[in-house]
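Our consortium's second objective concerns turning raw sequence data into structural hypotheses that experimental partners can test. To show how far this objective has progressed, the report includes one record in full. It was chosen at random from the queue rather than selected for favorable results. The single chain below, 226 residues long, was entered without modification.
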Amino acid sequence: MRIHYLICASLILGLALPAFAGSTRNDDLARIASATDVFHDIVDTPDSSIPLDVIQSAACIAIIPGDKRFAFFFGGQYGKGLVTCRVGQRWSAPAFVMISGGSFGFQFGGSSTSLILVFRNRDGLKQLLGDKFKIGGDATAAAGPIGRHVGASTDLELHAEILTYSRSRGIFAGISLNGAVFEPDRDGDVAMYGPSVHTEQILNGKVAAPQPTESLLSEIKKYALG
């Protein structure tokens, strides 16, 4: 029995380690392409999408595409994605991010879960520019409302710094990510922009958006700028 547990642990470790490995430019490009697909699929669903009101008032949008490599790791969860922020009438180049912990559960051996986090104001952005923060602890968060318009959303949703959403098995819904830790993926930024560029520069629009990000930023601008 002990050998059986050791074998299972080794298999889980083997699946999980790629998620913890440093990012390469090819990893970044794959994340950008996946994030573009996730965002398009979610906002293009008329009756079960992020409300346009929420998108159009967003300060930043983070997208964590689901990937089966992001497996359970001894009870923890882990995912990689990107975030872009509003800079006047445009959106910044994406900075790369990671999310871990919480109870949202990237599925092991089954379907994966994609996440979208909508940062409502500059207070959420301040947390984003820090080293890392806990969702629901360092920044208030709530499962986001669903539908074309906010309508009868609760005060909690409307006043939360971050609204959180998930898509799994084709089903899209608001989700609680309280307890999850959100932080920059420095390896991802270095792979795309080089070692001298930092998250704050990227999200404040000081860094030109690379050509591979044009489709994603165009998709976001189409909905977020009205």
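The partners drew two points from this record. The mean pLDDT is 77. The first strand starts at residue 60 and ends at 64. Both points have been shared with the crystallography group to help prioritize constructs.
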